[in-house]
Specification:
432 residues; 3-stranded antiparallel β-sheet; binds carboxymethyl coenzyme *A; 6 strands; mainly alpha; 18 helices
């Protein structure tokens, strides 16, 4: 598994010491200076809050070239996967490293399809939430609670149990997400149907009601599947790093994924799609854009759905999402949807404006996803839930990779301490 090879040395002069730091090379991407022995040899730490220059692990899953706008899963470009593959095939690829042959795929699909139901007692768990609970709060709690129901797959040292947990998570997260939605709108839960595809089954669990037949719409099922592919994994982002951080302690995978869901919820991460749609609604019409953009430049607020820590170019997922948005609006909603017009004009203005150009701010995956999901019938509170559903495979694949990495150890960053130095305790009656 160790793809890292020392080919060169970086020399660091620190005080009266001269330290030789190995330079590691990945398959592609920037060189990595190995500072693992720095503290032992120099008594100094590195300082990198926000991890802008730190590789926290080695990984063979996903590669991003942010300057070129490239995203590869196990070497395959995201647009090729989104346009030619299926979400379950991408799940197999992420989990196992290679695209499956027909027999392996049939077995994998069967495994996922046959694990979609939840323990009957699990359904009662949902009833404990307030009706107005945010669905992310419900999903976060419910995924953590899986560890209370599936005791036979909690041993992280057992390879078979790790795979069973991975399959359970991928299979059950659509059922949990759909129940979170149904609970929030006061409709009865819809059980999964094993004869439907992954995305179609999820749409049915969200939108079928007992009072009428639910008819699948192939364009929407395809769009949902594509949206899942676009969100499946994204290297060492905040939620994935959280999963790895939690997993490094040896805790079970259900608890790790719950930790990832918590991190994803924030508006700077997965919560941005909800914020992006709210922002477009707030702008409302094209004529209000110049005033809004001025507010962004005056730093009153951020342009949600724009900018990325890694992409300093067009997010390749955003391109596919934009196409998907048009496909969805052509069959449901309004092809001349006013919010789409606002989004397109906002994008045009932003991409020709010095403020955004100089900071390399481009649309990210969340810019068009809100309009698309809204047209499909999802309320904004569900957007981040859908992101969590799709990202579950990425999280669980990264977690598995970490557990199986012989170099893995508990994650324990250090700090630059800025508090008081040692001082004696002063009794209360002696304090001024
Ligand atoms: N609107 C306006 N200005 C921005 C934006 C934005 N969306 N994003 C960054 N900037 C400015 C920022 O103010 C800074 O300006 P200056 O150099 O003058 O101080 C400069 O660009 C660099 O920004 P940064 O904050 O150092 O960048 P970062 O890498 O720390 O932040 C980000 C990345 C995604 C948190 C940020 O771009 C942002 O908050 N975007 C809006 C939220 C969003 O769309 N998030 C979804 C990310 S994609 C989905 C996912 O993976 O979760």
């Amino acid at each position: 598994m160790d793809k890292m090879t020392d080919t060169a040395i970086a020399t660091l002069h620190y005080g009266d010491k001269s330290l030789q730091l190995p330079i590691l090379k990945g398959t592609v991407g920037p060189d990595v200076i190995d500072v693992r022995k720095l503290y032992a040899e120099s008594d100094a730490f590195t300082f990198d809050p926000g991890f802008t220059s730190t590789a926290s692990c080695q990984s063979a899953l996903t590669y991003i070239d942010g300057d070129a706008g490239i995203l590869l899963h196990r070497g395959y470009p995201i647009d090729e996967l989104a346009n030619n593959s299926s979400f379950l095939e991408v799940c197999y690829l992420l989990l196992n490293g290679e695209l499956p042959n027909a027999a392996d795929f049939a077995k994998f699909e069967g495994n996922i399809t046959n694990h979609t139901m939840l323990h009957d007692q699990f359904d009662r768990f949902f009833q404990g939430f307030r009706r107005d609970a945010h669905p992310m709060a419900i999903v976060l709690g419910a995924v953590g609670a899986l560890s209370a129901f599936y005791h036979d797959s909690l041993d992280t040292s057992d390879e078979h149990q790790r795979m069973v947990s991975a399959h359970r998570l991928i299979a059950k997260i659509p059922t949990i997400a759909a129940r979170a939605y149904k609970y929030s709108v006061g409709q009865p839960f819809v059980s999964p149907r094993n004869d439907l595809g992954y995305a179609e089954n999820f749409l049915r669990m969200c939108f079928a009601v007992p009072a009428e037949d639910w008819k699948p719409n192939p364009t929407l099922s395809k769009a949902m599947d594509k949206i899942f592919i676009l969100h499946a994994d994204h290297e060492q982002n905040a939620s994935t790093s959280t999963v790895r951080m939690a997993g490094s302690t040896g805790v079970n995978p259900f608890a790790c994924i719950a930790a990832g869901i918590a991190a994803l919820w924030g508006p700077a991460h997965g919560g941005a799609n909800e914020e992006a749609l709210n922002m477009l609604k707030e702008i409302g019409t094209v004529d209000k854009i110049p005033e809004f953009v001025q507010g962004v430049k005056d730093r009153k607020y951020k342009l949600m759905g724009f900018g990325h820590r890694v992409y300093k170019n067009y997010d390749p997922r955003a391109k596919v999402m934009q196409e998907t948005c048009h496909q969805v609006l052509a069959v449901v909603g309004d092809p001349d949807e006013p919010l789409l017009q606002v989004a397109q004009e906002l994008e045009r203005i932003a991409l020709s404006d010095e403020y955004f150009i100089s900071r390399k701010l481009y649309p990210n995956v969340d810019f068009y996803s809100g309009i698309t999901l809204s047209a499909m019938g999802f309320p904004p509170e569900m957007f981040t839930v859908l992101f969590a559903l799709a990202r579950t495979v990425g999280w669980v694949s990264q977690w598995k990779e970490m557990i199986e990495d012989p170099q893995q150890k508990i994650n324990r960053p250090r700090q630059l301490y800025t508090g008081p130095a040692k001082r004696p305790y002063v009794p209360l009656d002696k304090r001024g």
